Amino acid sequence: MNIDKFKQEHVYVMNSVGTLRELVQAGVTDHAEEIVAQLLAMTGAIKLHLAAEDRVLYPALANAPDPLVAQTSRMFQQEMGGLAETLTGFVSRWNLAAKISQNPQGFRDEANAVFKALHMRVQRENRELYPMAEAI
Length: 136
Known about the structure:
Layout: H1 4-26, H2 32-62, H3 67-80, H4 83-93, H5 97-102, H6 104-135
Helix pairs in contact: 1-2, 1-6, 2-3, 2-4, 3-6, 4-6
């Protein structure tokens, strides 16, 4: 199975999160406008990627003839299926610079949790699921 597009999207996701992290480290309050812009710019692409995995990749692998691939795909989809909703909720709570500026630590804490979960999903897919997909 050719998953080059998914792999390229993972690079984009991780680069986008890195850019957001740099802005946060430079100062949440001082860079609130840029943080919101980055969040909004990256969220659409991330949600499309997650939806494509959930609707196309995972179901295709769940129907693979290899039972290990099928089981792994179902497990990944079950464990990680709510990430898009979590991301959407996060962005809706922090979609204005004023919201971020009023509670920089709250933003930082929630951003850390959401993007840690996203990072873990990407890493596990790269390490465990994508090699299986490429082998079929």
